[in-house]
Amino acid sequence: MVIFALRWWVPFVGGVGAVLAVLSLGGGGRLDWGHPDLAFAVVLAMTVTCVIGSAAVWVVGLRRRLAEVCLLGSAIWVVSLLPLVHGLLLPGYLYGPNPGTVVAVMAAVPAALVAALPLLLDGSAAGRWLARRWLSWSIGSVVLSVAGGGLLLAWPNSIAAPEPGSALTVSTVAVSVIGMGALSLRHLRLYAIGRRAGSLIASLGFAAPGLATLAFLGALPLSAAWWLAHLTDGFGVLFAVGGLLVAHRRDRSIAVVLSPVLTREPLAALVLGLTPVVHRFIAALEVKDAVTRQHVIRVSELAMRAAERSGRDPLTLRAVGLGALLHDVGKLMTPDAILTKAGSLTDVERATIERHPIDGEALLAGYPHLAEAAKIVRSHHERPDGSGYPDGLTAAQIPLSSSIVSVVDAWDAMVSDRPYRRGMAAQRAEAILREGAGTQWPAAAVDVVLAEIRHGGVAQASRLDAVGQRARHQPIELGIDPLAACLPDRDAISPAA
Questions:
Q1: What does the H/E/C string look like for 152-180?
Q2: 372 with 345: CB under 8 angstroms?
Q3: Is 412 left (phi over 0), alpha (psi -120 to 50) or beta?
Q4: Where are the alpha helices (DSSP H) in 89-196?
Q5: Which of 42, 86, 89, 367 has its CA 20 to 30 A from that of 441?
Q6: Helices 197-212 and 100-115, interaxial angle, to 10°?
Q7: Distance (Å, rounded) from C-alpha 427 to C-alpha 475?
């Protein structure tokens, strides 16, 4: 998260925010370029475009009953419509001097935050209450913004505009910057997890309207701060909407485009950001052993949920999700007779299958973006008492991320049915994990995994069901070595003996 913030978010937010604050607090000079007609045209052109784009997003969410798409679409609509009203009320064109033009633009971001309130309060009791009423909340936000804009157009002198240095103005700016910053950071976090450009575009786009409100602190009409605020606000919304349109043209599916931009679920962000090689690895596992393929996607879902519960940062969440998804990829090197054997393994067979963490790490070695996941793959069978494999690490040497995958791996193996046996009861599996806490598995990892199971239930893998499906991701033909589709240099890796 820190790397991405330093590279993208901090320079943009810090740079634009600092310039706007300095110019606004200093009055921005009086950089009157003598082009009020240009200002009127630019504001109207940008706001009309923003309104059209935000309306398209909102309608898609409404038609498909996608709660977050609707809520964020309505928020973008509000922050586009009221600035349009502001543009129409600019003095000297359709109206004379009036305070409504200032009132409209100052109300835009706070009203948009109200539209997005169910997302901002996500996880709280109030947020859950609002989330159950997301459709009426979203429609109400759109209707009220239209009504409010209409009233200002009808009676532009009905509300007095607050002074730049007043408490109301300062509090409005503070709420706007903090609220839009929260929405922006939400999508920056999803970018760190999923590495989808759409999430980064959305993050910068949501930050922009909040930063633009800094102009309320003292910017003069047509000053440098006035122009920068309007351009920041307009291009912020257009940047996000434009990203959707460009991606839609490339991906040919508005649902595919909207999901990585608007979803707030880390698991969904991970899935949407998976690279083709990850899909090919999971497809190869399906060819090798469908049971193992189903196992790894369940482990990935539950491990990532548990890691999120433990407060892991976005980069660690991504590593856990990928590491769990690929933790058994080394079994691609294991002979089928050993992998699917129903009875007890011989010492030689056990030694062979216990190579799968090393083989898995080797399979991922050719992909730098899987380096952190490869560490988890190698260490997911280590034990706190030092009796694990392949390196015999002890408790202090085993990262919590690897431990979480290890616990979830064991849990799923115990409770899931196999062709040769029935899965055990959840209560028995929990008792085994408790008994092994501190020796076979780190106690902290056992606690957080069991807490997540009690809170969120067992893994359903609904978000991961499509990962590696051969019908959607580069089919692997029968008779072809499935590893050939995955490896950058097939000859560089030797299969287990």
A1: HHHCCCCCCCCCCCCHHHHHHHHHHHHHH
A2: no
A3: alpha
A4: 100-115, 117-120, 125-131, 134-154, 167-194
A5: 367
A6: 140
A7: 40
Partners of residue 423 on adjacent β-strands: none
Bridge partners for 385 per DSSP? 394
Q: Mean pLDDT for each consecutive 10-residue tract of the chain (497 residues)?
A: 60 82 66 69 89 87 77 89 94 91 94 89 78 88 95 94 89 92 81 71 84 86 82 81 58 52 60 74 85 89 89 82 90 84 82 90 83 90 92 89 93 84 89 93 93 83 68 40 45 34
318 HSE (CA, 13 A, CB side): 22
Any idea of the CA torsion for 256, 260, 262, 263, to the nearest 10 degrees? Answer: 100
In the chain, count H helices and then E strands: 23, 0
pLDDT at 217: 86
Q: List b or e across 355-372, with b for residues whose CB sees 16 or more CB atoms inside 10 angstroms.
A: bbbbbbbbbbbebeebeb
Q: How far apart are CA 190 and CA 420, in angstroms?
A: 40
Question: Which uninterrupted H or E stretch holds 84?
Answer: helix 67-88
Do 297 and 235 contact (CB within 8 A), yes or no? no
Cα three-residue angle 30-22-224, rounded to 5 degrees: 35
Give Cβ neighbours of residue 402 (< 8 Å, ≥ 6 apart): 323, 375, 376, 379, 380, 382
Tokens standing for residue 119: 């997302």
Q: Output the six-digit token pair for 355.
A: 């190579």
Tokens of 188: 């920056």
Q: How far is CA 205 from CA 50, 202, 244, in A?
A: 12, 5, 12
480: its two tokens: 């072809």
What is each CA distance from 118 to 69, 71, 130, 143, 397, in whole angstroms?
A: 12, 8, 5, 17, 41
SS3 content of the chain, % helix, strand, coil (to 5): 70, 0, 30
Q: What does 355-375 look like in DSSP terms, one character per residue? A: THHHHHHHHHTT-GGGHHHHH
Residues 379, 399: contact at Cβ < 8 Å? yes
- DSSP assignment of 240-284 equals HHHHHHHHHHHHS-HHHHHHHHH---HHHHHHHT--HHHHHHHHH
CA distance 140 to 216: 27
**DSSP code string of 3-60:** HHIIIIIHHHHHHHHHHHHHHHHTTTTT---S-HHHHHHHHHHHHHHHHHHHHHHHHH
